[in-house]
C-alpha cells in the first residue's frame, strides 16, 4: 500500500496561493479552537476502543447494534475525558462522522426538553437518571398522519382529577407516533406531545413525560405498542419508531410544567408567552444551516480532491489525459458548491451568534426580536438544506461511476443529510413562514413604519437604473445591491399578486394559496440576499490577511455571480440588469474559476476534515484512490466465496435440470466439451404448453456448490 | 385490512374530465398493446412461483441471491410461455419492476454483442450456449481508471502468431475492469474490450470473447482475478464486478470478427465504417430516455396519489385539513414533472421510431443519417436523465417524511435510476458531443450549406420581435418559436464565444474547453426545443379524441411554460420575450395547474402501473396508505424482538457496569425504585484521568437480554 501522497495532489498543494491553515483558523474561530478540534478528533479516531467498522458492509440491524454500542462508549468517554460542553461536538463528530447517532435524540432533544420545560422538582426527579442513561428518552411529536402542522396532532392526554392522572390515548391509526429517532428499540422513556383535555375542553399540544418500556427487561409497558418503522433511504443506524398508547395513565406531575400548568383541581395556567418555544426552533434551524455547510464542505472535499487525481479523455491529441478538474465544465459543477459551502458556513456562524445575543434578551423577557429571528432562520434553513441536497448530488455525479459506489462516501452522506429539507419544518412551509413575515413587514412599511434588521431594505425598492449605465459585476457592493433589489422587487410582486387575488374575490387563505409560488420565490430571494450580504460583510474582518482575503473574495464573487446567472431572469425582468451585464457576469465566472483552479485543493483542505470523518476513498487526503478502491472492494461480503450462489437454498436445484429437447443435443454436447458430465434421464412432455423437455443430470462441484451454467431450471 | 378505495382517491377519479384508458391507449400504442401488457403483467404478478419478496428487508447478499433466482426463473418462464420478443419487456418489467435484473447485462449487452459483432462461425459456436444460459456473460469495457473515454482503455490483447492466440493482460491497477454488471459473481464468460496489439503496433480497442470461470465449479480460471466491487448507492441486486487478467491466452478465433479481423499471419483488416457502432449507442440512449420517462411517471404516480390521501395543516380556520395536492406549491412541485414524464415518454417513442426507420437505411450501408441521430440521442439522453434525477427527488421530498421511508418506494427508485446520468456516456460529455455537432452544423450554415433534420432551424436566427408586440403565451406555436429562438441564439452565442477564445490566442482544444459551459447550455436548449416541439407535434395525432387532447394540450403548455419561466433569463436576455411575457407565463402556469388539479390522479392512473410494479405503499392504487404503512413497519427485521440489542455480543457487557461515584447513590437508588437489583462490588480509581468509578452488578432479564438502562459501560 502506497503511503506517499499522490503526486498530482502534492503538486496542487505546492501551487496554492495561500496557506490553508489560515483559512482553517478563520473558519473555526482561531488557532486555539483548531488545536482543540484536532486534539479531540485525534483522540476519537485513534482510540482502539472504537473499531470504526465499515458500515457499508453491514445489514441494517448490524449497523444499529454497532453504532448504539459506539454511542454508549462515546458517552462514557466524554465523561472520562472530562470534555467540555463547548468542545463536545468536536469529539462527537469525529466519532460518528456525518452519520447520525443512535442516542442523538436523547442528547439533542430529550435532555434539552427536560432542561427547558421541566420544573425544578421534575428536574430533580429525572435529570440525574437521564444524564446517566438510566432513562433513555426521545421526543415523540410527529404522528403517522401529522408532521409540520403541530395543532393537527391527535394523541390525547385527558386529565382525570379523581386519580390525579393523565390518561394517554392514540385514538386513531394516524395518531400513532411515527418517526421519533431512538423510539423503535432504544428508548425506555419519551417526551410525548399530546393534546391536553381537561373536562372535555382542548388546550392544544403539551409535553408529557412517559415511561414506555420496563427498566428491568426493556419490554413495552402495558398499553404501549412500540416498534421500529422499518428501513429508510438513510439513517440505517437509527431506530426511528412508532408508538401507540391505550389508556396509559401517568401522574399529573408528569406533564412538563415549567410553562403551562394543570393544577390538582384541573385549573389550567397559560404560559407567559406562546412565542417562547421559538428560541429553540431558531437554534435547531441554525444547526441545520451548519449541517448544510458541513454536507457541502465534505462533498466538495471529496469531489475536488478526486477530480485532481482522476484523469480522463484527451483534451489535446497526443497529450496525456488531463486531470478532470481542468475541464471548465467540472469546475462549473464543483466551484459554485465550494463557494456555497463557505457561504453557508459563515451564515450558520452568524445565525448562532445572533441567536446567542438574542437569547439573553429573550431570557430577560424581551421577545421583540423573536419574530424576525424566527422568519430569518426558517428561510435560511430551507435555502441551505435545498442547496446542500442538490450540491451533494452534483458532487456525487461529478465523480462519475465511482461516485455511485459507497466507497466514495457520497451516497451515504446524501442519504443521511437530505432529511434536513424535511425535518424541523418542511422547507416549503418554512419559506412560506418567512414570506408571511415579509408580507407583514412590507405592509407595515407601506403604512409608513420604519423597518429594522434584516427587512429594513423593504422600506424602499431601489429605482431601476437608467439604461446604458455600466456596472462592474465583480464589485461586491454592486452584487449585494442587485440581490437586494431583486428581493425587494419580488416581495413587492408577491404582495401585488396577493392583492390582485383578493381583488378578484378570493378570501385571504385562497389568495395566499394562489400567490404561494410567488411568495416562496420572494422568501428565497430574501434568504439569498442575506447569505450574499453576510459573506461580503465577513470579508471586512480586519484579522484576515491579504492572501486569504483575496481567495475568499473570489469565492464570494463566484457565489454571488453564480446565483445571479442561474436566476438571471429575476434581474432582467424589470431591466435592473441588462443582457450585457449578464454576459459580463458569465465571463467573470469563467475568469474566477480559472483563478480559483490552483487554489481548489487548498480551499477544501482548509475545511480540515480528517479521513476518518470523510469516510471516502475518493476523498482521501493522500489521494491514493485506486489502491484503496481495490482493497475496499475485496472486503465486500459478496466476495467471501468464489461462487455465484451457494447453500441449502440451491442444493435441490443443482442436480436435476430440464432442457428443451430442441436444444438437447447441442447443449449436452457443448457441456461435455467443457468437461461437465451430463446424463439424460428421461424425455417428457410438459403439459400446459406442450413443450418437450428432457430431465438431465449434470455434474456439480463435489462440495454442493451451485453450478451457474445449469440455469434452465423449472422450479 | 381495508379493501375499499380511499374515499378521497375515489372522488378524484369520479371528478376527472376524461377516461384514463384513452390516454393509456395513446401512450402504449393502442388498446391491443395495452391488453397484451396487462395480460403479461398479470401473469407475472400473480404467478406464485415468484415470491415477490420485499427487498427492503434484506441484506445485499440476500437481495442478490433472491433476484438472481427470480431472473433465472423468469428466463425459463419466458420460454415456457412462448412470449414474443416484442412483448418480452412487458413481462420482464412486471417481474423486476424498476429494479435492475442480475442477468440484465447477459440479455441486454452480451447477447446483442454476439448477435451484432460475431461472425457466423462464432455465432454457431457460442449463441446456443449463451441463449440457453450455459454460458452467462457480461460486457467488460469500463476500467477502474477509464470510463466514457474508450480510447483510454489499458487492457491489452497481444497477438501471438506462433500459437495463433491473443495474450490478455491487465498491465496496471487502473486497467482492472470495473463496474460490469454480473461480472462479480454470476458470469462465466465476458466480452472483453481490449487494446489490440499486433507486432508491437496498437490498433485500438476491440471485443474479445473470454471465458473467466470454470463451467464445472464456477471458480476463476488460471490468470483471472475477479470479484464484486462492493456495495453501491443502489443496484444492490447486481454484482458489478472487477476483473484482472494475467497472461490469459485465448484462440485467435475469440476476437469478435464481424467488423475488424486479424488474419492468421497477423494482417489486420479494418472495419468498413467506424461509425457502425453508433447505431447501438442510439438505441441504448433511446432506452435511457424511456427509463427517464418511466422514472418520472412512477415517481409522480406515487407522489400525486399520496398527495390526495395526505391531509395537512389548516388552510382556513376551523376547516378540515386540506388534501396536500390542493396547495399550489405542491402542484408546482409535481405537475411540471408529470408533464415532463409525458414529454419524455413521447420523446422516447419518437427516438425509437426514428432509430427503427434509420436502421434499415444503415443496414443498407447508408450511414448519412448517423451523425445527426447520434448527436440528438446524446443530448436527449442527458437532458432526460438529468430532469428525471431532479424530478424523482422532488417527488420524494414532496411526500414529506414518509417519502424518506423505503415504504414509499421512492428512495429505491432514485438509487436504481440515477445511474442513467452516468452510464452509457457521462451526461456532460454527451451534451458536449451534441454541441460539437451543433457547432459543425452552424458553421456549415454560415458557409451557405442548407441544413436538414433537427438542426435545420440553425440556418437562420429569427429576428427579435419589435417591442410592444403582444404574444399569446399559451399558443403552442408561439412557445415552440420561443424555444427555437433561444436554442438558435445560444448556439450562435456559443459559436461567438468559441471564436473569441480563438482570436484571443487559444488553440482549438483550449478554446473549446473555455467555451464549454456555453456549449453545454446551447446543447441543452437544442434538446429542450426538440422535446417541446415533439410533444406539440404528437398532439396533432388525429386519433386523439377531444377530451384527452384538451388535457394533453394543458400538459404540453405547462411543460413549455415551466421550462420557459425556469430559464426566463435565456428568453429575456436579447429581448425576445419581455418581462410582461414572463409575468403572463407565470399567470398561465397557475391557471393551467388549477385546471389540471382535478385530472391529476386520472393522468397518473393513465400510466397504468400495477401496484406490483410501483412497489410503494404511498402510491397504492387503493390509497389505503396508513394501514399498510403500519403492516409494513411491523415486518421490519428490527422488530423481531422487543429488545434494543441482544445476543452474545452483549452478554459480557450486561452484568458488570461502572458508575461514576459522584452519582453512585442517586443512580442506584433510582434503579432500585424501578425494581432493578443493584449490588456495588468495588469502588476504584480510574487511572488516566483520576475519575472515581464503582463496579456495580445490575440485574438483567433472565434470558440474557441487554438491559438498556445499564448504559454506563466502559468496554
TrEMBL record, chains A, B:
It comes from the Eukaryota. Residues 477-643 form the Acyl-CoA oxidase C-terminal domain. Its main location: other. It is found in: Peroxisome. Residues 278-439 form the Acyl-CoA oxidase C-alpha1 domain. SUPFAM superfamilies: Acyl-CoA dehydrogenase C-terminal domain-like (SSF47203), Acyl-CoA dehydrogenase NM domain-like (SSF56645), NAD kinase/diacylglycerol kinase-like (SSF111331). GO terms for cellular component: peroxisome. FAD binds at residues 142, 181. Transmembrane segments: none annotated. Keywords: FAD, Fatty acid metabolism, Flavoprotein, Lipid metabolism, Oxidoreductase, Peroxisome, Phosphoprotein. Belongs to the acyl-CoA oxidase family. This is Acyl-coenzyme A oxidase. It comes from Branchiostoma floridae.
Amino acid at each position: 500500500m502506497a503511503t506517499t501522497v499522490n503526486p498530482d495532489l502534492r503538486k496542487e498543494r505546492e501551487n496554492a496561493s495561500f496557506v490553508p491553515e489560515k483559512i482553517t483558523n478563520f473558519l473555526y474561530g482561531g488557532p486555539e479552537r483548531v488545536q482543540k478540534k484536532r486534539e479531540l478528533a485525534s483522540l476519537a479516531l485513534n482510540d482502539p476502543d472504537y473499531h470504526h467498522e465499515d458500515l457499508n458492509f453491514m445489514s441494517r440491524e448490524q449497523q444499529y447494534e454497532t453504532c448504539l454500542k459506539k454511542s454508549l462508549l462515546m458517552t462514557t468517554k466524554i465523561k472520562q475525558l472530562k470534555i467540555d460542553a463547548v468542545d463536545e461536538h468536536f469529539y462527537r463528530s469525529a466519532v460518528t462522522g456525518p452519520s447520525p447517532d443512535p442516542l442523538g435524540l436523547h442528547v439533542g432533544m430529550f435532555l434539552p426538553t427536560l432542561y427547558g420545560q421541566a420544573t425544578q422538582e421534575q428536574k430533580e426527579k429525572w435529570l440525574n437518571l437521564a444524564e446517566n442513561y438510566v432513562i433513555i428518552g426521545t421526543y415523540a411529536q410527529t404522528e403517522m398522519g401529522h408532521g409540520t402542522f403541530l395543532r393537527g396532532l391527535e394523541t390525547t392526554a385527558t386529565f382525570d382529577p379523581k386519580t390525579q392522572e393523565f390518561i394517554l390515548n392514540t385514538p386513531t391509526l394516524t395518531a400513532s407516533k411515527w418517526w421519533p429517532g431512538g423510539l423503535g428499540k432504544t428508548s425506555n422513556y419519551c417526551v410525548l406531545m399530546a393534546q391536553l383535555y381537561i373536562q372535555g375542553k382542548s388546550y392544544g399540544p403539551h409535553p408529557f413525560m412517559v415511561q414506555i418500556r420496563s427498566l428491568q427487561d426493556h419490554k413495552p409497558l402495558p398499553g404501549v405498542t412500540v416498534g421500529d418503522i422499518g428501513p429508510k433511504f438513510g439513517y440505517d443506524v437509527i431506530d426511528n419508531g412508532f408508538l401507540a398508547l391505550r389508556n396509559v395513565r401517568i401522574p399529573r406531575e408528569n406533564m412538563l410544567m415549567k410553562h403551562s400548568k394543570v393544577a390538582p383541581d384541573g385549573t389550567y395556567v397559560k404560559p407567559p408567552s406562546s412565542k417562547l418555544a421559538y428560541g429553540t426552533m431558531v437554534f435547531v434551524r441554525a444547526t441545520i444551516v451548519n449541517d448544510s455547510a458541513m454536507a457541502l464542505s465534505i462533498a466538495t472535499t471529496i469531489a475536488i480532491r478526486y477530480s485532481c487525481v482522476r484523469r480522463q479523455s484527451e483534451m489535446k491529441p497526443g497529450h496525456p489525459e488531463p486531470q478532470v478538474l481542468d475541464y471548465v465544465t467540472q469546475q462549473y459543477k464543483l466551484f459554485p458548491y465550494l463557494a456555497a459551502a463557505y457561504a453557508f458556513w459563515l451564515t450558520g456562524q452568524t445565525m448562532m451568534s445572533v441567536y446567542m445575543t438574542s437569547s439573553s434578551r429573550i431570557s430577560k423577557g424581551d421577545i421583540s426580536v423573536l419574530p424576525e429571528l424566527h422568519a430569518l432562520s426558517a428561510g435560511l434553513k430551507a435555502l441551505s438544506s435545498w442547496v446542500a441536497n442538490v450540491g451533494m448530488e452534483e458532487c456525487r455525479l461529478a465523480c462519475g461511476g465511482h461516485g455511485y459506489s459507497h466507497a466514495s462516501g457520497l451516497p451515504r452522506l446524501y442519504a443521511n443529510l437530505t432529511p434536513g429539507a424535511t425535518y424541523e419544518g418542511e422547507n416549503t412551509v418554512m419559506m412560506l413562514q418567512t414570506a408571511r413575515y415579509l408580507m407583514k413587514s412590507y405592509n407595515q412599511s407601506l403604512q409608513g413604519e420604519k423597518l429594522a434588521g434584516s427587512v429594513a431594505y423593504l422600506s424602499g425598492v431601489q429605482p431601476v437604473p437608467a439604461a446604458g449605465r455600466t456596472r462592474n459585476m465583480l464589485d461586491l457592493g454592486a452584487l449585494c445591491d442587485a440581490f437586494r433589489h431583486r428581493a425587494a422587487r419580488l416581495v413587492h410582486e408577491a404582495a401585488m399578486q396577493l392583492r390582485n387575488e383578493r381583488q378578484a374575490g378570493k378570501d385571504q387563505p385562497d389568495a395566499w394559496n394562489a400567490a404561494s409560488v410567488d411568495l416562496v420565490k420572494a422568501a428565497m430571494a430574501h434568504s439569498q440576499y442575506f447569505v450574499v450580504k453576510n459573506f461580503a460583510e465577513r470579508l471586512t474582518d480586519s484579522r484576515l490577511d491579504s492572501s486569504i482575503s483575496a481567495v475568499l473574495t473570489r469565492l464570494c464573487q463566484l457565489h454571488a455571480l453564480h446565483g445571479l446567472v442561474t436566476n438571471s431572469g429575476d434581474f432582467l425582468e424589470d431591466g435592473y440588469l441588462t443582457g450585457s451585464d449578464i454576459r459580463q457576469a458569465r465571463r467573470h465566472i469563467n475568469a474566477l474559476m480559472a483563478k480559483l483552479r490552483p487554489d481548489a485543493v487548498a480551499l477544501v483542505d482548509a475545511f480540515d476534515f480528517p479521513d476518518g470523518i470523510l469516510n471516502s476513498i475518493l476523498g482521501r487526503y493522500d489521494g491514493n484512490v485506486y489502491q484503496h478502491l481495490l482493497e475496499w472492494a475485496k472486503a465486500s461480503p459478496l466476495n467471501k466465496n468464489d461462487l455465484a450462489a451457494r447453500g441449502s437454498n440451491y442444493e435441490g436445484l443443482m442436480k436435476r435440470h430440464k432442457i428443451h429437447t430442441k436444444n438437447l443435443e447441442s447443449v449436452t454436447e457443448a457441456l461435455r466439451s467443457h468437461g461437465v458430465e451430463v446424463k439424460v434421464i428421461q424425455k417428457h412432455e410438459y403439459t400446459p404448453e406442450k413443450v418437450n423437455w428432457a430431465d438431465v443430470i449434470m455434474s456439480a462441484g463435489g462440495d454442493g456448490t451451485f453450478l451457474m451454467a445449469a440455469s434452465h431450471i423449472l422450479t
